[in-house]
Write a structure and sequence with these properties.
The protein is mainly β. The chain is built from two helices and eleven strands.
Length: 192
């Protein structure tokens, strides 16, 4: 149910690059700063408080083209086993085949396919999210938290979206546990 986080992070990074349009002329490979990145999710369930969780292990690459944001791209990988909802026993359950099935599918991958600037500080990043052996397109909304300047070495972003877990074979607990998993990713990208 928490598997939607990785693509958000990817989307955020891509969006940030796009939002900085005009700051740099050429495409450059920026890196996600793990110390300033949080990949989180929330899910609702009938009769229980909202569950919040994070993923602690991830890796991403971002190619930013500020002159032509549509040429920017992101690839992001999250370790499904790094899920953390604050309960070791529930974390272990989420790692089973009822949810992430980390024994068969250890990684959650996102690869962007397009970036569209909505305005100077907002973008829509579309890409393919692969989770539990299923690959589906998703679109993430990205906001630039730290606007770029001509000499910017770091850009901050927040990405949000909602993923239908049933589409990825995560059927456990439905309908008591909602289909929609809300993702929020905050991150900083560092210039090369």
């Amino acid at each position: 149910m928490a598997a939607r986080v990785p693509f958000l992070v990817l989307a955020i990074a891509t969006s940030a690059a796009l939002a900085a349009a005009g700051a740099r002329a050429a495409s450059a490979a920026w890196r996600i700063d793990p110390a300033h990145t949080s990949v989180g999710f929330t899910v609702d369930a009938v009769g229980f408080p909202r569950t919040k969780g994070t993923f602690s292990k991830f890796f991403g690459k971002i190619s930013l083209d500020f002159a032509r944001p549509e040429r920017s791209s992101v690839a992001f990988r999250v370790s499904a086993a790094s899920v953390d909802v604050g309960s070791p026993s529930f974390d272990d359950y989420l790692r089973t085949d009822a949810f992430f099935d980390v024994a068969k599918f250890p990684d959650i991958d996102f690869v962007s396919t397009s970036v569209r600037m909505v305005d100077p500080t907002h973008a829509e990043v579309t890409g393919d999210l692969s989770l539990r052996g299923v690959t589906r397109p998703i679109t993430i909304e990205v906001a630039v938290d730290r606007p770029p300047s001509r000499d910017a070495r770091r850009l901050g972003f927040t990405a949000t979206g909602s993923i239908p877990r049933l589409a990825y074979g995560m059927n456990a607990g439905f309908p008591a546990i909602s289909n929609d998993v809300v993702l929020t990713v905050t991150t900083a990208a560092i210039a090369p």
